[in-house]
Amino acid sequence: xxxxxxxxxxxxxxxxxxxxxxxxxxxxxxxxxxxxxxxxxxxxxxxxxxxxxxxxxxxxxxxxxxxxxxxxxxxxxxxxxxxxxxxxxxxxxxxxxxxxxxxxxxxxxxxxxxxxxxxxxxxxxxxxxxxxxxxxxxxxxxxxxxxxxxxxxxxxxxxxxxxxxxxxxxxxxxxxxxxxxxxxxxxxxxxxxxxxxxxxxxxxxxxxxxxxxxxxxxxxxxxxxxxxxxxxxxxxxxxxxxxxxxxxxxxxxxxxxxxxxxxxxxxxxxxxx
Length: 273
Prior knowledge:
- By secondary structure, the protein is mainly α.
- The protein has one domain.
- Helices cover 77% and strands 1% of the residues.
- The chain contains eleven helices and two strands, in the order αααααααααββαα.
- It has helices at 4-28, 33-46, 51-79, 85-90, 94-108, 111-131, 147-162, 167-176, 181-206, 223-245, 249-272; strands spanning 217-218, 221-222.
- The chain has a two-stranded antiparallel sheet with strand order 1-2.
- A hairpin with a 2-residue loop joins strand 1 (217-218) and strand 2 (221-222).
- Helix 3 (51-79) crosses helix 6 and helix 3 runs antiparallel to helix 9 (181-206).
- The chain is globular, with a radius of gyration of 18 Å.
- The mean pLDDT is 84.
């Protein structure tokens, strides 16, 4: 068992990370994964976690935190009747399959590869946020299978590799096919459930027995972070929400796009700087 002082320092650093992630998640209306992963990556680095497992640990821990928040969000949206249940039924196997495939990939790729994947997808998300136009459409309704089913698998894979709940990717998919943004956001909460639960177990399996993990970790999931971050993010998220209501939609989209661009370049710098 590590010294109490080491555990306390670890807990305090993660608590500070939770405050930052909670405010930013509330500000930008994102489930938190896109924010938690880079925050965890920085904090785990400051705490001396081995570079070989630092990104994997960040992604796995982020998915574990998304489980209760996505379930709570889905139930709330479901009661309001705005979730596209037909789409979720169609993706009941596709999205979890993608999430499981992501954990299998993560078990065999390096930390550098995971950072590169996160940075590339983050840049694509940033482009969409900064330059988004309401007129951008691919079709008037969602495509039929097998295209729709394969999109679900792809969202599961990419989200599982990034440690996110799939909200930004699913929102983009649904709105490009003419679905209202409120329906897209509500349905994304269900997608988050389908990604985070298999992702959690998958990252526990992928990191089982790995060396260099911090105290109280099971595979690539750190339970100190999970236990601290969930209540802290729920507590401080309203601060970010209040800030969000003081800004326009385009300001928020551009702000999140700029944030994701900075994160992407931070990861690119860690790879090639």
